[in-house]
Amino acid sequence: MSRPTAAPEIPGRATEAREQGTPPVTVAVRRLPHSASLPERASAGSAGYDLRAATGAAIRMEPGARALIPTGLILGLPRGYEAQIRPRSGHAYRQGLTVLNAPGTIDSDYRGEVKLLLVNLGRRPITIERGERLAQMVVAAVPEITFREDESLGRQPTEGLRNDGGFGSTGQ
User: Fold this and answer.
1) Counted domains in the chain
2) What single-letter DSSP state applies at residue 112?
């Protein structure tokens, strides 16, 4: 029996379940007049969707400076999901540009414009141009959590667990 041929994957569009069997998720997006583009993946295997600067003019960031960069996008995440905003590794490595609160979280009930909180940790000024890919967004499921108090936790060592060692307690 032959398998049906899958449609070619289009960057930026998760229309088919991935090889891992992850079902597609639809996220509503409203593009504001100043938006540069919809989020898009750089390759079919990318976990993150690139977000672009939707600035009117270039923005210069001095070393140590923070900036809130608009994307021109409003997301309608389904309940039970969040969007995580993460740095792009190339910018972080080459320039020291990163997301200050990485990963930043966009909750499913937020309906304002997505803005990127960036910081220049490099030694030189950075100029951000309109349409430049600045961060990546990963949409992740968030389970509903019920917390149950348990007074026995941390009172007795548990084999194989660190208890209160933390902060490097498992070795160098």
Assistant:
1) 1
2) S
In sequence order, what are the beta bridge partners of 74?
30, 113
Residue 14 belongs to a domain: no
Each residue's pLDDT tens digit, 64-80: 999 999 999 999 999 99
Task: List, for residues 156-172, the tens digit of each pLDDT value.
Answer: 666 666 666 666 666 65
What is the C-alpha separation between 108 and 59, in angstroms, rounded? 29
Q: What CATH number is associated with residue 72?
A: 2.70.40.10
Report the DSSP pairing between strands 133-141 and 81-87. Answer: antiparallel
Residue 1 included in any domain: no
SS3 165: coil
Return d(Cα 82, Cα 90) in angstroms, integer: 24
Residue 171 in any domain: the answer is no
> What gap in Å lies between CA 59 and CA 50, rounded to an integer?
19
Evaluate whether residue 77 is within a structural domain.
Answer: yes
Q: How far apart are CA 118 and CA 115, in angstroms?
A: 9
Q: Could you tell me the pLDDT band of residue 50, with boundaries at 50, 70 and 90?
A: very high
pLDDT band at residue 125, thresholds of 50, 70 and 90?
Answer: very high
pTM comes to: 0.78
Q: Are 69 and 53 in contact (CB under 8 A)?
A: yes
Domain limits at 80? 28-141
**In degrees rounded to 5, what are phi and psi of residue 93?**
-70, -50
